[in-house]
Amino acid sequence: MTCDRPLHRIALPALAPLLLALLPLTQAVGQDAVVQDTNAQDTVAQDAGATEPGTITIDGEVRPLPDVATTPPDEIQSAIDRGVQFLIDDQNPNGSWGSATRTKGLNIYAPVPGAHHAFRAGTSCLCLAALLEVAPDDERTQETIRRAEDWLYDHIRNLRRANGDAIYNVWGHAYAVAALAKLHRRYDGNESKQAEIVELIRTQFDRLQRYESVDGGWGYYDFRYQANQPTSDSISFVNGAVLVALAEARDIGIEPPQRMVQRAVAATQRQKKPDFSYLYGEYLKYRPARGINRPGGSLGRSQCCNAALRLWGDESISDDVIQTWLYRLYVRNGWLDIGRKRPVPHESWMQVAGYFYFFGHYYGAVCLQLLPPEERAPFQAMLTKLMLERQEKNGCWWDYPLYDYHRPYGTAFALMTLHRCQPQ
Question: Bridge-partner residues for 277, per DSSP?
């Protein structure tokens, strides 16, 4: 999920067009795509009172939820099983996933070797987390999990920024915390192993403190001064991903540094717009109506930012907000889907990049779990339909051609999305 500074490169980071007939698109003009963003100025009704089953209230208007059939559980499990088998087969001999191979004529800025250390770390941690979620006791996965765990212990302490301006390692630190939190639960009752995991998590806290922006939060480039502490503005969805991971550590009793969390929350709140879309990064605060900052451009990151702020106590992220953006994620999915698999980041309408696709849906599933259980089913059906329709023949999912990292990280995001859509 990376991207370049004024949106030229990419992030580590996140399928056939859906409902495009409902999205009136015009031709891109110049660098900023000019698009008719349907209901671009929507606001989110909060505390609007109960609505009828099968409806949602947005901006005071009651709308019917899409009539999406519930997928049989065995069909969901079959897709998960195929995705798990892909990860087993795709694992590197050393226990990691992904590599710097499969290059193409156009590649994102990735100074060697550090950028690829970061991409591999983030990808491998996502894959390990996915297997620990969806198949922790499957006989097929035990050796795969063991090798991935060993790789994580051996390599994550050494992850650093690639150079002065490329700070992709923040993705690796964030997803390492998430994977280690799941490993901590896996070793319930094994005090020595859990103590080792706690020490590793605290090491990642230290790295995140070291690489946070001077204004709080995290970005993945520093094109200003390339100082020891990054001087560039934070990026909203990076903050969101890190904060969600830190909440996972908190939930197993490992508190992250309070000041670091507070600064990241504040940085994310500064990028929140009244309709709960989010600026791409704080450096775009004087261009709030630019395509990437409008609701269509924010569709792949509002889920992540809303989840992060809700998990860290922002009461403005109500159930109404969560439901509204899950609804939009489905009915406006074309804004994301039309950018999927495009080789140039941000070339699509609303300057959407392909790597937002599975990233956005995974954090949509995280949001789903913040709703009361009795309100989840319609949104589970929507997310399930999207994920099943986009699985490749070999069992993987992918959204942006990123060297050889895209298939494993896309598969990990999709598996964890489907896992949250299974019946309780």
Answer: none
